[in-house]
Amino acid sequence: MSYHKILVAVDFSGMASTVLAHAGEEARLHQAELTLLHILDTQIMDLQLPEELLPSSLEMMQRLRSLAQERLDALQKSTSVPSHGLLLEKAGGIGRNICEYAAEGGYNLIVIGSQEQGAIGRLLLGSVASAVVHHAHCPVLVVKAPAAA
């Protein structure tokens, strides 16, 4: 199978570079378009706060947006494969939003990382990665964290 549009979902964890390296290699092999996607979940700020706290929550959201864009730009610059980055602000499940964006954009491979964290992590695969694997319309490459020595 040949891929022409690859979507790599990044979360700025320590694994982001590894996930991007795998996605970049797939893009090179298939001469595919590569898009880095970060979803900024606006639900984290969707709290019913008193008006006196609202300006500080808006300021916090602007700061989160700015930091996310800086990290996305840095990741994009770190790859030798031509790519573009996209920061989406969406409420709801991050995994669902990744799948919807991939389907709407005609992507035919999603690359995502999964960090197992103890017994619960092994059961859940990682909630975002698990949601993407179960709901994606296309193949998903899950890059697992290296096993601890």
Describe the structure.
The chain is α/β, with parallel strands linked by helices. It is 46% helix and 22% strand. It has helices at 16-30, 54-78, 94-105, 118-124, 127-135; strands spanning 5-9, 33-41, 83-90, 109-114, 140-144. A 5-stranded parallel sheet has the order 3-2-1-4-5, with helices on both faces. Helix 1 (16-30) links the parallel strand 1 (5-9) and strand 2 (33-41). The chain is globular, with a radius of gyration of 16 Å. The protein starts with a strand and ends in a 5-residue tail after the last strand.
Any idea what the shape is? Answer: globular
The secondary structure category is alpha/beta
Radius of gyration: 16 Å
Task: Give the termini separation.
Answer: 34 Å
Got a strand count? 5
Task: Write a brief caption for the model.
With 149 residues, the protein is α/β, with parallel strands linked by helices. It contains five helices and five strands; from the N terminus they run E-H-E-H-E-H-E-H-H-E.
List keywords for this structure.
22% strand, alpha/beta, 46% helix, globular, single chain, 149 residues, five-stranded parallel β-sheet
List the helices and strands and how they pair.
Blueprint: E1 5-9, H1 16-30, E2 33-41, H2 54-78, E3 83-90, H3 94-105, E4 109-114, H4 118-124, H5 127-135, E5 140-144
Parallel strand pairs: 1-2, 1-4, 2-3, 4-5
Helix pairs in contact: 3-5
